[in-house]
Automatic annotation (TrEMBL):
This is Serine/threonine-protein kinase ripk4. SMART domains: ANK. GO terms for molecular function: kinase activity. Keywords: ANK repeat, Kinase, Repeat, Transferase. The keyword Repeat applies. It comes from Thraustotheca clavata. Transmembrane segments: none annotated. ANK repeats lie at residues 27-59, 60-92, 93-125, 126-158, 191-217. It holds the Pfam family Ank_2.
């Protein structure tokens, strides 16, 4: 059975001097990559004893540490770091191990990497930092760790999205609230594409309400358009119930719109004032 395929490797010791422990498969992965991906701690110990490298990259540019971080294998990642795994090595897509761990919400691995000096603000080929990745997937505990480590809330990706805009567009209210503690001053500084604009554009009205209560301004042309559409595009009963529960906010929003054009936009406006 090939070394990379063996699930019984931990049952024997590597003594054959002719055995090449850094051999690669068609994707460029070594036995170390495979063991790290699957969290096989004892196998990795054997490979390390036999001289296997922790630094080699496969065809995608990923190292064994990337593999362990992506799967949340804390003890394996810790072992690899102890044996010299490059903590900030970048894969072909620009991801570091911290990107992998942050994207999938592996809090313990994120903390491990940060405590070992991982760079918190490296950007991938799309301009996304680990914070962008954690925010997009709603991993609040990871976001908190990154913020405490000094992650920038102002960095924009290649599409000019900052983390707060991402959180609002994705509807992650807890993450939005967490970010606002750090970047409250940014709420209206987006040239019309504010977090509030994106929250309403993607129908995340509870997030929009939180932003309004935090001081976000709703007076701009782009947002005004999405507010009109808000009343004709309900997707779920929950959205309607939320507006019914918060009649005052809905009426305040309505006051910012030109009522000479109500025939086109306010088909369902009675929902906002029903007792």
């Amino acid at each position: 059975m090939p070394l990379q395929e063996s699930t019984e490797l931990k049952e024997f010791k590597i003594k054959d001097e002719n055995l090449y422990v850094n051999c690669r498969d068609m994707k460029g992965s070594t036995p170390m990559h495979k063991a790290a991906s699957n969290g096989h701690y004892e196998v990795i110990e054997l490979l390390l004893d036999a001289g296997a490298s922790t630094k080699l990259k496969n065809n995608n540019g990923t190292t064994p540490l990337h593999c362990a971080a992506a799967q949340g294998h804390f003890e394996v990642a810790k072992l690899l770091l102890r044996f010299g795994a490059p903590i900030d090595a970048k894969a072909n897509n620009g991801w570091t191990a911290l990107h992998d761990a942050a994207c999938d919400g592996h809090t313990k691995v994120v903390e491990l990497l940060l405590n070992n000096g991982a760079s918190v603000d490296f950007s991938d080929i799309n301009g996304s930092t680990p914070l962008h990745r954690a925010v997009t997937n709603g991993h609040g505990s990871v976001v908190n760790l990154l913020l405490n480590a000094g992650a920038s809330t102002k960095t924009k990706d290649n599409n000019q999205w900052c983390p707060l805009q991402k959180a609002a567009a994705c509807g992650h209210e807890d993450v939005v609230l967490l970010l606002m503690k750090t970047c409250r001053y940014d709420l209206n500084a987006y040239d019309g594409r504010t977090p509030l604009y994106y929250a309403n554009r993607f129908h995340h009205y509870r997030v929009g309400d939180s932003l309004l209560k935090a001081g976000a301004s709703d007076i701009n042309e782009e947002f005004e358009r999405t507010q009109r559409q808000k009343y004709v595009g309900f997707d779920t009963i929950d959205e309607v119930e939320f507006l019914l529960e918060d009649r005052l906010t809905s009426l305040q929003i309505a006051q910012t719109i030109d009522f000479n054009d109500t025939s086109q936009y306010f088909v369902n406006i009675p929902l906002c004032v029903v007792q």
